[in-house]
Design brief:
Helix content is 78%, strand content 3%. It is mainly α. The protein has one domain (16-72, 82-145). Strands 1-2 form a two-stranded antiparallel ribbon.
C-alpha cells in the first residue's frame, strides 16, 4: 500500500474542543427557540446541522466561529479527534431540527417541542459534560456493522 493510499484511508481529524464549543452555541440557540417558540431559530439550527452533517462540521457556521474566534485564543496543541462521530451527531441533530421545523410551520406543538427538547438534552450533555450522544450512537453502529 502506498503512502497516498494510506493517507486516503485515514479519517479527517478535528480539534476535540470544537464540538463542545459548538454544542454550547447550539444549547443557547435551542433553549431560546424553545422558550420563544421561534421558527427562525430552529431554521438557523437546521442550517447549522445540515452543513455540519452533510458537508463538514468545520464548514458549518458554529465550526467557523470556533476556528476563527475561539481556537486561536486557546492556544496549545491538541490530539485530533476523528470527524466521523461528530459529523454523524450533526446528522442526528439535523433530523431533530427538521422535525421541529415541520412542527413549527404546521403549528403542531408536540412536533416542535419534543425534538427541540431532545436536541437540548444532547447539546447540554456535550457542552457541559463533553459527552456526545450522537458520537456514541455512531460508535455503536460501527461496532454492530463490523460483526
Amino acid at each position: 500500500m502506498t503512502t497516498k493510499e494510506k493517507s486516503a484511508q485515514l479519517p479527517e481529524l478535528i480539534d476535540p474542543r470544537g464540538p463542545r464549543v459548538t454544542a454550547s452555541i447550539t444549547l443557547i440557540v435551542l433553549i431560546s427557540a424553545f422558550l420563544t417558540h421561534s421558527t427562525i431559530l430552529v431554521v438557523v439550527q437546521l442550517i447549522q446541522f445540515t452543513i455540519g452533517g452533510f458537508v463538514s462540521p468545520k464548514k458549518a457556521p458554529y465550526g467557523l466561529i470556533y476556528r476563527k474566534l475561539v481556537q486561536p485564543r486557546l492556544g496549545g496543541s491538541f490530539i485530533g479527534e476523528d470527524i466521523r462521530g461528530p459529523q454523524f451527531a450533526q446528522k442526528v441533530g439535523f433530523l431533530f431540527a427538521a422535525l421541529a421545523t415541520i412542527g413549527a410551520f404546521t403549528k403542531v406543538d408536540l412536533l416542535f417541542t419534543i425534538p427541540v427538547v431532545f436536541a437540548i438534552i444532547a447539546a447540554f450533555l456535550n457542552a457541559v459534560f463533553d459527552y456526545c450522544l450522537g458520537c456514541q450512537i455512531y460508535l455503536l453502529l460501527q461496532r454492530a456493522t463490523k460483526r
